[in-house]
Amino acid sequence: MASKGIKDRVAIIGMGCTKFGEHWDKGAEDLLCDAAYEAYASAGVQPGDVDAYWLGTMGSGVSGLTLSEPLKIDYKPVTRVENMCATGSESLRQACYAVASGAYDMAMAIGVEKLKDSGFSGLVMTNPPNDGTPASMTPPALFSLLAPAYFKKYGLDAEKGKEVISRIAWKNHRNGAKNSKAQFQKEVSMDAIRNSPKIADPLGIMDCSGVSDGAAAAIVVRAEDAHKYCKNPIYIKALSFVAGPAAGPLSPEYDFTSFPEVVASARDAYAQAGITNPREQISMAEVHDCFTPTELVLMEDLGFSARGHAWQDVMEGFFDLDGHLPVNPDGGLKSFGHPIGASGLRMMYEMWLQMRGEAGPRQLDHPKVGLTHNLGGQPGRCVSFVSVVGSQVG
User: Fold this and answer.
1) What is the CATH number of domain 10-116+213-231?
2) The predicted structure's pLDDT at residue 132
3) Could you read off the pLDDT of 177-188 as tens digits, one per residue?
4) CA 172, 339, 71: angle at the middle one, nearest 5?
5) Residues with catalytic annotation?
6) CATH among 3.50.50.60, 1.10.730.10, 3.40.50.10580, 3.40.47.10 for 139-208+236-390
7) Would you say 236 and 10 are in contact if contact means Cβ atoms under 8 Å apart?
8) How far is residue 306's CA from residue 310's CA, in Å, rounded to a whole number?
9) Does the reported pTM lie above 0.90?
10) C-alpha–C-alpha distance, residues 51 and 281, integer Å
11) Which residue of 2, 31, 77, 99 shows the fewest CB atoms closer than 10 Å?
12) β-pairing, 381-390 with 369-378?
């Protein structure tokens, strides 16, 4: 049974996003201020107009004081949330539901992460106490399991499979080269990607998303109020978040060619938004390409490709910037970077730019309906978020 949703009841009227990358000269508080004030200016509002805030961060602060102190917020609710790599999307979901409920007239969702300050590359963190069943492997190793499983199931040899996932990285770097806020703004050849140093076979370093600092923010109001602030807002059609039972690593039936949590959240989001044929009805998508085989599998879990056919769509350019369904037109996690608390809102920022015709050299031809997707965790043991947004009500 799908959740009832809040279709067309909430609109985004302003957004801000910092450049993602190595911000050695800025702290989390600086990045938060940069994103927030860009969002205020975008919406044409003052800080005092925002009634409540939801702050997403995995490890760059605790409590609402992380935001209220640098922004000098006077005695307003600031809720800090965390849901692994879907943290930014979680902050948006909660802000939207708060506005839809009538509890607040205007809310901000904002996310931030400072990953580079640790001096390490990747997510360096200590797992909480557990029952011993979670895999003690690095994220690249865990997600590398997707590739050989998919190749074997659908009849690709190792060389062809490597070409497929390399093309995903090639596409996302090509898109990111057109994005002035991306961490990596350079096209990379297929040969360089295929031959990059191995991290976890068959994944090379060029199959892994960027580790970066950054922040992004969105201001939301009820849809009927949107045109008081903005000529061309974007409207929330669906927000779906699910947490799975974490049964994948324990089940002999789990084959590492799908994320059941993504399938469930997509099904729910499509029901909320009235989407019956995502391959045809979705104009563009921003998905969680933490590693190249993740994007490959997601194309099937989200219903963009039939089972066993995503690799063909990848090779034929179906998901390219000039393809039928552009995926990660801003470069995705691979090129734009992945500061955990900001990534989900960064995806929405691309929807904001594209639907308003403000995406510059990567601008698509009049996109109407967009999808964003985040996941957090590992194959078979994760959380998943899917949103659907549109440029018009209805």
Assistant:
1) 3.40.47.10
2) 77
3) 999 999 999 999
4) 130
5) 85, 338
6) 3.40.47.10
7) yes
8) 7
9) yes
10) 35
11) 2
12) antiparallel
